[in-house]
Amino acid sequence: MATLHENRLLFNSNITVSHSGGNLSSDSGLILVKEFMHTINFSNILKQTLTINDDRLYYNHANHSIIEQILFQLIAGYQTDSLADVLSKDPIFQSLLAKEQLASQPSISRLWDRLSQENISQLQEVNQILIDKVRTARNTTEMIFDLDSTHSDTFGNQEKSDYNAHYQTNGYHPLVAFEGLTGDFLKAELRSGNVYTSNGVADFVRPLFDHYQETVPVCSILVRADSGFATPELYELCEKRQNFYVIRLKSNRNLGKIAEQFVSIDDQQDWDKKEVHYASTLYQAKSWTHPRRICIKSTREATELIARHEFIITNLSENLSAEAAFQTYSKRGTMENYIKEAKNGFYFDKTDSPRFLENHARMMVSVLAYNIVNFMRTLCFTKETKGFQVSTIRLLLFKVAGKLVHSGRKTFLKLSSYHVYYELFHKILRNIQHFKWQ
C-alpha cells in the first residue's frame, strides 16, 4: 500500500514517517494458520461441503476463496469487510490465498447476499467435520456440552432485531454450545432478540446428541447449563438419550422450604464463621412427569443469620455427592471466557448486515475462525502457550513483519530479524508440520 502522507517526528526531526516501505506485510505469522489449515485439509472440506447458488457469468474470486479470505482477516484481527480494500495487495494475503489480488469489499458484500439458509447448515456441517477430525486426533471419549445464550447488539432497523429486557438493548439473542473440556465451539444459532433463553433448546441440542451417539460415538455426554435452561424438555431429552445433565434451578418458595429442612442450628452455633452445607433430595415440580434429584448448597456468611440457598437439578448418580455435583457445575464458568473470546477475538457478535440470514452467516464464519485457532492452539502450541488468548497469539506470532523475495523458482519469506518470539514461532511451525492426523 502506498501513501502520500509524510510526518516528521517531534522527538527527532531527522526522522520522517511514511507508509512507503514497499512489498512488506505486518501479518507474516499467518503462515502458521495456513499451514495448519493445510494439514487438516480445510480448503477441500469447504469446497466439498459448501455449495452456493451462484449465477455469476464471470468472476475473479470464487466463493470458497472469498470465505477463506474473510477467515484470515478475522483471525488477523480485521473485523470489517472494508479493510479488504487496504489488504488487497498485501503480499502475505496474496500468498496465503494464491491470488494476485484479494476480493474487494463489494465482492465480499455480494457473497453475503448469495448465501442461503441451506448454506448456513452447510457451514455448520463444515464446522462439525473439522471438530470430528480434531476430536479423533485428541482421542477423547467423553464430552461436556456447555449451553448458554448471549447477546449481539444491532443498530438501526435490522431484520428480526428486537428489544431484550435482560440486556436492556436491541439486538439478537444467539444460542451457543461449547465443549467444556476443550473449548471447541460446537454449534451456534442466531435468534431474534426477544426470544427466551431456552426457546428451542431441545431442537438445538438433539442433532448434537444424534451425531455423537450414532455417527461418532462417545462413551458419555454431560450437559451443563444455567437456570435459563431449566426446562422439562431438556431434562427429558437427556434422560431419553441416557445423557447426564447438571442444570441450575431458580429458587422458589417450595425449594426454599426444602432447603431449610437441611439447615440445623444448635446452641453451640458459631455465628462469626462462614458455613456451607450440601444436601441432596428428590423433588417434583408441577410441570414434571416424575421426581428428579436436586442438590442444595446452603451458605451462611459470617455474622449473618439467614442462609442463602442454591439449587441444581441433575441425573448424576447418588454416589456422587451434592458437593461434587456443584463443583462439576461451577466449572461451567469457563464458558463465559469462551464466549468473550469468540466475541472480542473473532467478532462473533458483529452484525454489519441488514438481513438476518447474512448476520447468521457472518456468525458462522466467526465460529470457524474461532475453532481453527482453538484447534491449532490446543494441538500444536507448547505446554506454556496452550492457554493464550487470540489477542496474545496475534501479538506474539501473527503480527510479524515480513517480505516475500522471489528467486528463480523459489520464494523466500524473510521475517523480521528482530522478531522477539522467533523460537516459539518455529517450534509451533514444526509441531504443525509433524502432527500426526489419524
TrEMBL record:
InterPro entries: RNaseH-like_sf, Tnp_DDE_dom, Transpos_IS1380
One Pfam family this sequence matches: DDE_Tnp_1_4
Domain Transposase DDE residues, every copy: 9-436
Annotated protein name in UniProt: Transposase DDE domain group 1
